[in-house]
Write a structure and sequence with these properties.
The structure is a homodimer. By secondary structure, the first copy, chain A, is an alpha+beta fold. In chain A, 54% of the residues lie in helices and 9% in strands. Chain A contains 20 helices and eleven strands. In chain A, the strands form three sheets. In chain A, strands 1, 2, 3, 5, 6 and 9 form a six-stranded mixed sheet that branches. The longest helix of chain A is centred in the middle third of the chain and has 36 residues. Chain A is globular and about 85 Å long. The two termini of chain A are 54 Å apart. In chain A, 49% of the residues are buried. The interface between A and B is large, with 125 and 125 residues.
Amino acid sequence: MILKIREHGISDPDEIYYYKNVWRGHHHEAFGLHYSMFLPTLYSQCDSEQRKKWLPLAHSMKALGTYAQTELGHGTHIRGLETTATYDPSTQEFVINSPTVSSIKWWPGGLGKTSNHAIVLAQLYTQGKCHGLHAFIVPIRSMSTHKPLPGVVVGDIGPKFGFDEVDNGYLKFENVRIPRENMLMKYSKVEPDGTFHKPPSDKLTYGTMVFIRSMIVGESARALSKACTIAIRYSAVRHQSELRPGEPEPQILDYQTQQHKLFPLLATAYAFHFVGQYMKSTYHRITSDINQGDFSELPELHALSAGLKAFTTWVATAGIEVCRMACGGHGYSRCSSLPDIYVTFTPTCTYEGENTVMMLQTARYLVKSYRQASEGQQLTGIMSYLNEAQHRLHAQPVANRPTVIDISDLASLVEAYKLRAAKLVELATKSLQGELQKHKNQEDAWNNAAIDLVRASDAHCHYMVVKLFVSRLGEVGDVAVHSVLSTLAVLYALHGVSQNSGDFLQAGLLSVPQLAQISEKIKELLTQLRPNAVVLVDAFDYPDEMLNSVLGRYDGNVYENMFEWARKSPLNRTEVHQSYHKYLKPLQSKL
Amino acid sequence: MILKIREHGISDPDEIYYYKNVWRGHHHEAFGLHYSMFLPTLYSQCDSEQRKKWLPLAHSMKALGTYAQTELGHGTHIRGLETTATYDPSTQEFVINSPTVSSIKWWPGGLGKTSNHAIVLAQLYTQGKCHGLHAFIVPIRSMSTHKPLPGVVVGDIGPKFGFDEVDNGYLKFENVRIPRENMLMKYSKVEPDGTFHKPPSDKLTYGTMVFIRSMIVGESARALSKACTIAIRYSAVRHQSELRPGEPEPQILDYQTQQHKLFPLLATAYAFHFVGQYMKSTYHRITSDINQGDFSELPELHALSAGLKAFTTWVATAGIEVCRMACGGHGYSRCSSLPDIYVTFTPTCTYEGENTVMMLQTARYLVKSYRQASEGQQLTGIMSYLNEAQHRLHAQPVANRPTVIDISDLASLVEAYKLRAAKLVELATKSLQGELQKHKNQEDAWNNAAIDLVRASDAHCHYMVVKLFVSRLGEVGDVAVHSVLSTLAVLYALHGVSQNSGDFLQAGLLSVPQLAQISEKIKELLTQLRPNAVVLVDAFDYPDEMLNSVLGRYDGNVYENMFEWARKSPLNRTEVHQSYHKYLKPLQSKL
């Protein structure tokens, strides 16, 4: 694969990503972190001398690297990391140590057996003082024999939920010495005598994190759209039970309950595709602003990427399982690929920022914005809706205010989501305020309002998704395409209203009689989407090689191919399996 | 294990179940179906001659059996099965055939490599007529060489989502001949000349199905309580982030969001334990009535077991994943056992009756009961609440009716769940009625009301769970135990109200201002439960050997043991893995 990428001259990271996906299917690779973390970190944090030394080694894969941050006892709270790098001016070396069991590096991909180098995050000590976390290039295995170097205890962390292809590893240091030049010195520096120079700014690290989270939003769309493709195609192939006595068994996609499971997820997959595109382009726009010294939009992007990462990965994770279980028993077979899609995707809920922590980071920004708005400050960008909503929500008493939802009108639905979000941000801020008034300190108050804060973030993200989906429709010129995408958008919005109807009723945005109308409308939309459902997943355009699912085959020839696939099962290599001779026969002789 | 069971003289099925669980952990075994389906079917469907022949063979495991019903293209709708057994009076044999690809038997556990016999469900043809499905004992492998017999194509169906220990298999018949005596003849019969005698009743098969579904409700409680034990114990061990600057990192169980994830699931696990006990005792009570010829309660038991099987397995499946993700990264490691608990449990949503189909079966009974109640008939048993609710809900116009929930009072909460269920059963029946009035036939009308019907079943089951939990509290004499269980019951009930607040508002059972009170009350309950959370999971009393989870260890000594566990990873058997010599080194030489 690596040679082919070079042969074809593929260098655009997006193209490399898609090219690899075709080769790998849903699986990961032991070299994943070499490309996604080791190399990029060398590029962004080496000084010019270091680049000259390390980039050729990394490109030729003589130095095979990973990125070791998380420790056995430390994940989310990176300031709590315990690994130390203590500078010894007498030899001009850093001494790396793992002082406790909980400080053992844990989880880095490719660390267990593959890598011979790691970028290690450690607390830097020099001249008797701790200067916080810094990154060091640490050789861990011999480049000639691949054996662990002295003082390095390294191995695989054992079986996981999926990711069988990746040797996630542990790494323990016992007085491992590395030259001073192995500290990544583009920004921070330790001089030969041990004098420390701190970095001018920490904003660039911040940027990488935001980038990865933004990309995960697109990942949510891809994972969910693959699962929808498989489940919807197979629901057109599978015939089961009877609708009318004596008639042939209908396609299971004709059952209302099946449509109700799958079509809202199909709509969600489209919504997340548009949100993913938006995140990508917003990231590039803001990055180019940042490169010109304008950091003004970074906090908004940070809040948006954190919240949407959490929102979309939670929804997609649950949605993949709904798709799997909508395929009956065959969804449990790995020939469907649904189990693989699930186990490969679900870690996005935890890595690059645990989802609940992400929601709370977004909430911090929302509360700050709400307070600014209620002090009369005019907000810019996305958050300006809080100014407007403040005006709307408090214009007159709730009881007299007319309900705002016209359940067939997208603009009205966007407005309803906006006001729901504003209402929940308000409630969360007031809840926090209330806790503070109970003489609690800031931190305890925050913790005691956390449920409300997460709920506010969730509503904010939900609003963003509905808004972005609808605004994207404005760019679709083709009438027929516009029509079917609008149907999906209405379904997405109404399904969300019905799942959260208490919120909308509470905010006075919906009346009780409308609940029944929404149920009826959703049923109509399912019926409208039925004839287009299969083409709507075909439009995601996953070739069979990439989808790698017998159930989701484009040609629908499922059962013959399942039989072929099964015959290749490893257990079928011998007609009589060795377990018969080893266990069964001896057991039978004893009974 | 088998020898030990004999040695200790363990014969009670429950004791055998628990004894096996200790040996197996969360895993299944290749002999599972031999014990759970093959032997019981021989007991219940052999005539006296057949018992004499087959029981000793099965007990000595000379005949190793499985149960082959599901086919590649047929699951839920068993009348659609295609395998044929055609009687040939000239040789007094049945000829078994798989006429199509979709008729290949698929999924039976232990079929792929282990079993030498299968009980095969096939369409019986004799004297030119089809007499529907019957069960046949079919030898599939030689009892001396274990090789497949002529005409039998058998093998493993390939990797699945979990269940790695079980060789689920396929089975294809090409004119396989078995003696007439291999048809299970306790009820149906084919005479030597081919004359068919139909069974006197099909109610006994019905009984087995109800039994297994009832048992699955208890399985839901066990799976969820194991997951809660692991997640809650580990949340007391794990320290992360900071609540107050400068202070040590707090236990993650002190975070409100963590409590909000785990404590409602803890309450659910307790609720399901009580429901599981109720289902078991109800099953035994009704079975003894049936044995005395009283079938009157069977339809109610059937509806209850179908609905509660679906309700509890869906909730527990989702809940296990919440527990797993509440453990951060380490929840993904199989040392937590959470991935194994999930993949072992999730199939309960599909097997023994696909959940949506189960919900619709319950709905059929609910609609029938509602119609009887609205015709003035006095219902008995569980469904009598529909008489009462009909009276309450229609006593006065909705707008004037006082809300009924006292959010701190369990009796009032049970009442609210009852009225919500009655309301949704009413709405579903009216929806069905409306569809019928649109000149639709019965079947299309049913399909077009299916979403409402599932929702009604869900509300009915939810009511049953709340009611059974609360009524069980009445039996608890110890004041302190009663107090903490009541707190759990209120949390279970209020969490359900907040998750489904639209329903309660719609039925006029809740006012908008009460929503905020419920949020506050839930927070109070979480705080009250915090000091008891760990003992509440300890009370489930899973020994470490059975829980098999490093994260969930009783002694809390997690990190050292994780490191020990990791060192035993199969990849760590060699210091330098063979992949280095096979792939890495050659690759490096080419770059």
